[in-house]
Amino acid sequence: MGFEPLLRDFPMLLGPRREEGDDVPLRVPLVDRLQGVGVGSGVRHPLRLLVRYVLAHRPIDVDEVVLGGGGEDRADPTALLVEGVLHVLHAGGRARAVHNGWVADFRNPAISFRAPNRYERVVGARFVPGTFDRTRGRALTREVSPEFVEAVSDFFNTRAPDYDAARGAQEAYFAALRAHGTDVVTLPALSGHPDCSFTEDVAVIIDDKAVIPNLGHPSRDGEQDTIAEFLADDFEIHRMPAGATLDGGDVVFYDDRFLVGVSTRTNRGGADFLAGHAKQAGIGTQIFEVPDTTLHLTTVCSSPRPGTMVAAQGHLKPEDLAFAEEVIWVPNEEGYAANTIAYGDRIIIADGYPKARRLMLDAGFSITTVDMTEFREVDASLTCLSVFIG
Predict the structure, then answer these.
(1) CA distances from 154 to 217, 292, 379 (A)
(2) Residue 115's pLDDT band (boundaries 50, 70, 90)?
(3) Is the peptide bond prior to 116 cis by the omega test (within 30 degrees of 0)?
(4) Which residues does residue 370 pair with via DSSP β-bridges, in sequence order?
(5) At residue 67, does pLDDT exceed 70?
(6) Is the pLDDT reported for residue 65 higher than 90?
(7) From residue 166, how far is each of 33, 146, 300, 367 by CA, in Å?
(8) What value does the mean pLDDT of the chain take?
(9) Following DSSP, what letter does each residue of 85-98 receive, concatenated?
């Protein structure tokens, strides 16, 4: 097939044009249509699905002119993507690397756009699920372990956590993600690993790569294997070398960089390993020394939208966050609520923190709250319970 039908049909696949600020997921009709013709099984990211569709259904002619994508008129996302595919596969007349059925090194340096609204941010023309495009279209999670009462806790613990209450809270968490358009994939609990539901720690997604770390607490070693196996269908897996450690909870994405905390769980070797892969993707890294008052960097800060950081007072200093256009400082007594998950101007925060809630409302966010009481008992925050993979 030629590109013209693809370009003609793509607006219909995505659905009607969205109004500014409308966060209704664009992915669903496209996913259904593409999976209906036999591509993208198990894959939810629309741009990746489209790349796979193009590669699977037509030969590429390097001299073909892509209608609607030339000159300054580069508003059509399909035309942009097709140009990117052509650029990658035939730069200099030579095919570029393809692995796991995906295009490796997908980029077109000339492209920089902020439309449609769901793809809010493109840095170096690279898409990172849940970060650069901030769609958070798919989340990988794991059921709470029946051994949850034995989960590691060094900071917030006041009593033994309740397994049944934690399972109920996790279902409420899943419901909150789904209400914001996220497809939640849940793996079964892993025997012998009471912390296994904290999947954020076990993978960091960079472009089409998944960095699988050596986790910082010895009791968690072994959680990585099933996660890596699941991700291998869609991502190139990169294992961290021996001696380097990192928890994904020490990684925050802000606009054009990863903020990486060196902590009791993440050492400099782990931070440098991640920074090396980020650099290959054209992404900067800023290293933080995580204070001993907290477990992870994400425990005390998050970036809910471009230009904005939310941070807990008493853990980070204003000069630490001088790069941010806006910093929302949460009072130390409610610092747990500085860990957020956001979809544009809609934000999920932990329930029970009225001052933090008021600050988010004043900053223009609409709010969904989730009761995180049981997870707080084992030092876990909202973001701990998922890793966004699409």
Answers:
(1) 12, 11, 7
(2) very low
(3) yes
(4) 350
(5) no
(6) no
(7) 37, 10, 22, 22
(8) 75
(9) HHHHHHGGGSPPPE
Q: What is the pTM assigned to this prediction?
A: 0.68
323: Cβ–Cβ under 8 A, 6 or more apart, which residues? 254, 257, 286
On the question of pLDDT at 69 being above 80, the answer is no
Distance CA 293, CA 269 (A): 22
Number of structural domains, the chain?
2
Is 41 buried (19+), middle (13-18) or exposed (0-12) by CB count in 10 A?
Answer: exposed
Q: What percent of the chain has pLDDT over 70?
A: 66
Please tell me the predicted confidence (pLDDT) of residue 158.
Answer: 75
Query: Is 112 in contact with 156 (CB distance < 8 Å)?
Result: no
Identity at 190, one-letter amino acid code: L
**Maximum Cα–Cα distance for the chain, whole Å?**
67
Residue 313 lies in a domain: yes
Please answer whether residues 225 and 193 qualify as being in contact, where contact means their C-beta atoms are separated by less than 8 angstroms. Answer: no
Beta bridge partners of 261: 288
Once rounded to an integer, what is the mean pLDDT over residues 116-128?
33
Q: Which domain holds residue 72?
A: 3-103
Q: Six-digit token pair at 264?
A: 């009791």
The alpha-helical segments, DSSP class H, found in the chain are 3-14, 27-36, 46-57, 77-90, 163-179, 224-231, 268-280, 354-362, 373-376
Same-domain check for residues 34 and 145: no
Same structural domain for residues 289 and 204? yes
SS3 66: coil
User: How far is 140 from 227, CA to CA, in rounded Å?
Assistant: 9
